[in-house]
Amino acid sequence: MFYLEGMKALLLLVCCWPVFLWSQSRYDVVIDEVMADPTPQTGLPNNEWIELKNTTASPVILQNWRIGDATGQSGPMPNFTLQPDSFVIVCTGSAVAALSAFGTAISVTSFPSLDNDGEQLFLKSADGRIIHAIQYTTAWYQNEVKREGGWTLEMIDTKNPCTGLQNWKASTHPSGGTPGKKNSVDAVNTDPSSPQLKKAYTTDNTTIVLVFDEPVDSLSGATLTNYSIDGGLTLVSAITLPPLFNQVQLRTAAALNDNTVYTLTAVNVVDCKNNTIGTINKVRVGLPADPVAGEWIINEILFNPRSGGYDYVEFYNNSNKIFDASKLYIANRNSGGVISSIKVLSAAPHYIFPGDHIVETEDAANLAMQYLVQSPDNVLVVSAPPSYPDDEGIVIALNFQGEVVDEVNYKDDWHFKLIDHAEGVSLERIDPAASSQDPANWHSAASTAGYGTPTYKNSQYKLIAAIDADIQVSPKVFSPDNDGRDDIATIQYRVTEPGYIANVTLFDAAGRPVRNLVRNGTMGLTGYWNWDGLDDKGLKLPVGSYIIFTEIFNLQGKKERFKNVVVLARNLR
Questions:
Q1: pLDDT of residue 5
Q2: 19 CB contacts (<8 Å, ≥6 apart)?
Q3: What is the CA radius of gyration of the chain?
């Protein structure tokens, strides 16, 4: 009797064995090597391919599994059994012969065309479950030479499949990769880091998507009690989104209000290594709107970078609205004056809140090496951005409707005249509310700020406040040495009716004219002029007291004169 029962158990196990092979969990098989850019060839065939590794102690049947990217998925894989701790190359049918010389290769129809930069790949089992997914960029190579092609991306530790950039690098094998074999960079690479909530965006007025910096556990990600939101809103559902599982979709019971910033908090969310999210993980979210002129402004321009550096343009949200960088554009004008080289600021939703400074550049890591970047998450990388020449150029900001919301026709002579070399010195806007095209509203970034302030308030920022008197000068003592403190004397005016013309002349203490600051300048009802402490020839004036003589008149014969005193000082170094 015991023998018969044992035989039944054995037969049952044998009959069910294929079922066990088909029932796979996430990360049982991983994408552990990618040849996305095979040219120029280093030593491997000129073909794109991916490598799969079985990370378990049991065989896995890959029949009817598929690989895919953001645009679609391949045909089914053949009836192939991937043995424990072994590898298989997946490619097109035409590449099998060449790649079989390096290891076992199988083909699929409609093999996805692998983008060199910014590709999302997923591996799906026969029953439609996502087993593994990655979203690589050229930064994953961690090597400036190898990112140009001919080398594979290899996973360092296949037991740590959640981590992205930190667990991948370019192959070190002389042939450029290790198809069908253990990766050349194979090593233990533990993941002690907790998942972090990076940002959030909305898809409609009741749906919020949270974005984490790595894949999270599906169950903890979909636990509704792990999330809360302010503003009197109630959350009613949570879903962890495939294929990367680094996003969670939340729904609210009531609609979000326009022009309202909400704070959302996440707790108890874990990654695939069971690391728990930090105690404070908050992000802002709301409903984005389209900016109009004066709300989304060009705030800082680096058009003459140091050798090895890159241009950057900083924008400022000068409103109480929320903007989405994926619906904002940067551009220039061609020689015919037509808007050209239009580039979107972000491929994915990236919300910009009131008072935020957002920087566009071609290389975020390079920017951080050149300048202090206080908010790295506010740096948006734009591949092949519009060109901005060193002598003069045009920077344009466009909204989602393609309307120009700000434009600056900069010139290199807008820089502080006493700067010998403007290379690496950004041009900063002084007053967000003042004219974008007024040269007097721009000044070189202070030396004490490292000649640039990407992602934070300009070193030369000065909001011109309303005044009571007809003419006022601020500050009373200024020191034009580009140290970021009182570098400019601002002459503010207010007149009672439009149509006035102004002449502004500066005299030294002996009564000698030293600077014709304004000649027949048209005045608004309020406005200002800036003096940088230089004479008409652009030479530095000595310290001392100076008289600012302002004469205003109109065509009806009205005339008024004003005298103000300002002290020019210089800091000792």
A1: 44
A2: none
A3: 31
pLDDT higher than threshold 70 for residue 219: yes
Residue 8 has pLDDT above 70, yes or no: no
pLDDT tens digits, residue range 253-275? 999 999 999 999 999 999 988 99
| Tokens matching residue 540 | 């530095």
Per-residue pLDDT at 327: 98
Q: What is the mean pLDDT of residues 176-194?
A: 94
> What distance in Å separates the CA atoms of residue 34 and residue 115, rounded to the nearest whole number?
11
Query: Is the C-alpha dihedral spanning 380, 382, 385, 390 positive or negative?
Result: positive
Q: Quick one: 370 exposed, middle or buried, by C-beta within 10 A (0-12, 13-18, 19+)?
A: buried
Q: Which long-range contacts (CB under 8 A, 24 or more apart) does 273-278 make?
A: 273/160, 273/162, 273/191, 274/217, 275/191, 275/192, 275/193, 275/194, 275/195, 276/194, 277/194, 277/195, 277/196, 277/197, 278/194, 278/196
* Residue 69 DSSP class: E
CA dihedral for 249, 254, 258, 259, sign (positive or negative): negative
- Give the model confidence (pLDDT) of 422-475 as tens digits: 999 999 999 998 899 999 899 999 888 999 999 999 998 887 665 555 899 999
Which residues contact residue 464 at a Cβ distance below 8 angstroms, ignoring those fewer than 6 apart? 431, 433, 434, 490, 492, 528
3-class state of residue 12 by DSSP: helix
For residue 134, what are the β-bridge partners? 121
Edge-to-edge strands, sheet with 197-204: 197-204, 207-212, 247-252, 235-241
State the average pLDDT over residues 491-512.
89
Instruction: Name the residue among 83, 77, 84 with its Cα closest to residue 62.
Output: 77
Share of the chain above pLDDT 70, in %: 94
Report d(CA 58, CA 25) in Å as an integer: 12
Token code pair at residue 384? 């092949």
Dump strand ranges (E) for 92-167. 105-107, 119-124, 130-136, 153-155
- Whose structure tokens read 């003589």? 549
Q: Give the Cα separation of 376 and 349 in Å (integer).
A: 16
